[in-house]
Amino acid sequence: MMDRIVNGINVSKVYNGVAVVKDIDFWVKKNQFLTILGPSGCGKTTTLRMIAGFEQPTAGHIFFEGLDITNIPPYKRAINTVFQKYALFPHLNIYENIAFGLRIKKLNEKEIEKRVARMLELVNLKGFEKRKVHSLSGGQQQRIAIARALVNEPKVLLLDEPLGALDLKLRKEMQIELKNMQRELGITFIYVTHDQEEALTMSDKIIIMNQGEIQQTGSPIDIYNEPENAFVADFIGESNIFDGTMPSDCRVLFANREFECVDSGFQTNESVDVVIRPEDVTLSEPEAGVLTGEVTSVVFKGVHYEMLIQEGPRTWMVHNTLMAPEGAMVGLSVLPNDIHIMHKEG
User: Fold this and answer.
1) CATH 3.40.50.300 domain range(s) in the chain
2) Per the record, what are the reactions this protein catalyses (predicted)?
3) The whole model's pTM is what?
4) Average pLDDT estimate for 292-321
5) Which of 37, 56, 74, 269 is in the most buried spot, having the most CB atoms within 10 Å?
6) Other CB atoms closer than 10 Å to residue 181's CB: what's the count?
7) C-alpha dist (Å) from residue 157 to 64, 65, 101, 160
């Protein structure tokens, strides 16, 4: 418990009678990069705003280094926020934008100069001190917003979809830069996004939310390889999800065939969701596959081909570096470790 810098217990938020965050528990360790991930309207930004103090929980408590901060105003929290809209001051130059919070704290000019210089070097914008905000690109403005937040030396930095306004190439570059900044400074980052790739690329830990509830918490590898339900499997990467039943432990029946798997603890003949990642499906000659299907679509994705294969009433998505042409008959096989079994939701 002592290494948890932020801890939420039974946190809920209700707007006009509608629960947008529903009795969730969450925590993040010191110096960890936590991402809250989910679709629009799932409650992730509301959760971030409650951590920041911009929203009050309807129920529950938020703790910071073991102290209850639920009713403490934002300016008294050792937490800073970077928003998607950077909210830079257009009438101030870059130096004064970064120095703004330090002047509010009434630090002496020498200390301000030292801290601003360090931040400009950290975000690779040394020499931009006298530039105006409007003269910067979107990526540069984003760096200044981060520098302005970090110069106050917060223990936790909250980031609400800060890369959303950037183009794809710059977004990928900034993902790496943000992670490097976080490691170098040793500051806890709590990052909100709906972008699965961002979450997988940067995070030490991911919380996946849907409809105000936490669906799963874990490392990027655990969440990708061992999703706990069909929503998580479908939201994190592409997935084939089929209806199945469990005749016994480590045996699953779907596609009119019984397969070996590694999951147990289900009731006999329990209805389940069977999840198989597209990259885990092996293609072969029809006679060598466990199942047989016809290729109905082929799309080149750069590093692999994405193929849709019709097998009976089921459509399989398959990712492979080798292409089978449309109309070809192929065999489909999958290893026991790559068949993930989920309880049916609801």
Assistant:
1) 4-230
2) ATP + H2O + polyamine-[polyamine-binding protein]Side 1 = ADP + phosphate + polyamineSide 2 + [polyamine-binding protein]Side 1
3) 0.84
4) 96
5) 37
6) 19
7) 13, 14, 15, 10
